[in-house]
Each structure stands twice: as C-alpha cells, then as structure tokens.
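User: quick one, fold this
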Amino acid sequence: AAAFVRMPTWATWILVGGASLAIWWLVSSLVASHWIYDRSSLYRWMWVPTVLRETPMRWVNIHAGLDESTEGLAAVLGQPPLVVLDIFDPTEMTEPSIARARNDARPTWPSVSCPGSVPVDVQNVNVIFAIFCLHEVRRDQRRIDVMADLASRLTTDGRIFVVEHLRDVANFVVFGGGFVHFLSRRVWFATFAAAALAVVGERRVTPFVRVFELQRLP
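Assistant:
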C-alpha cells in the first residue's frame, strides 16, 4: 500500500493561502468588473456632463479596436462625433485578449483606422475621449507620440479626457497580478508632461478608475 505522506504545516498553509487568493481574485475581479461597467456611473455617462463646461461642437472618440463608448457618448452629448479613431496596431498590440475582443466586437459606429497618426483633416477639436485604450500602447515613447499627436488637434481651450485603471493597491486587491497590465499614476503623469499636456482635473469613478482631464500647454 502507498504510504501516506503528511505535508508540513507550513506547506499546507501555503497551499491553502494560494488557493484562497486564487478564489478571491476570481470572485473579486468579477464583482469589481460588474460594479465598474454595469452598476457605476461610468457607462451610464453621468460623469460626462459634470466634466464638460459646455457641449462640444467637435468631439472625437478613440478606441483600440473595441468601441464600447461612442454610442453612449453620442447619446449624452446629443450629437455625433466628428470622427471615431481606432488606434489598434497589430504589430504592437499582440495580446490574445485584444484579438478575442476584436473578433467578438459588433461595431455600432464606423471607425477610421489610424495606428500611425491621426488623419490630417482632424483639426480644431474641442474634446477628445480616450476610454480604456491608451494603456494598450505599451511603449512609453509611442504612447507619448500618440498623445502629442492628439494634443496638436485640439483648439486652444480643448480638452482630452483619459479614462483608465491604475496600477495601484485598489486594482491589485481586486484584479491580482492582472493589475500589471495597467499603468501607474506616475507613468501617466510622465506621459502627459512629455506630450506637453497639463492635468487640469482628476476624479475617480469607483475606487478603481480615474478620469484625467488634460489641456494642451501653451
């Protein structure tokens, strides 16, 4: 008969702790995602009127291959966007999750693909929305270049609204190791500064999501 090997107490606690963490992150990530995307004001767009001084006449929405925001933004703003830009770059954005999302996506608004630069005719924009997309540009310099390009299309008092999760304690608690896919607040601020953008407003939508309001520096 096979001998029963009793595990040391410390090993048992490690196994129990690891299994408990795995279960926690599985459940907590589902609960947090439901709160953020289904129950909070984020995709009900209640935060949008509070950050805008007036309804923009010329606004643009940015996504990275999965557009979950243009339809809602158009409804709350009462007018269609000037253009919707898809910054998806297959040479850089190679994660399987992005490929799956693109395959499953059912576009509700036509987009212009611009992995290199914004089309030259996109000018004098009042507001640009970039919701959960700019973190997909993984190289720091490339992200700076994208944001500088966007900034150059703004009117003098135009705004860019960047909505992102952060690589912080709150997101680690609920998403575990997945939080490394997000960027830290320090990295975002360095990116904004290098792109000649000033942060003129910052707010939370749930403990896990930040909205950064940016203005082009003089």
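User: anything notable?
Assistant: Strands lie at 59-63, 83-86, 112-113, 125-131, 154-165, 197-204, 209-216.
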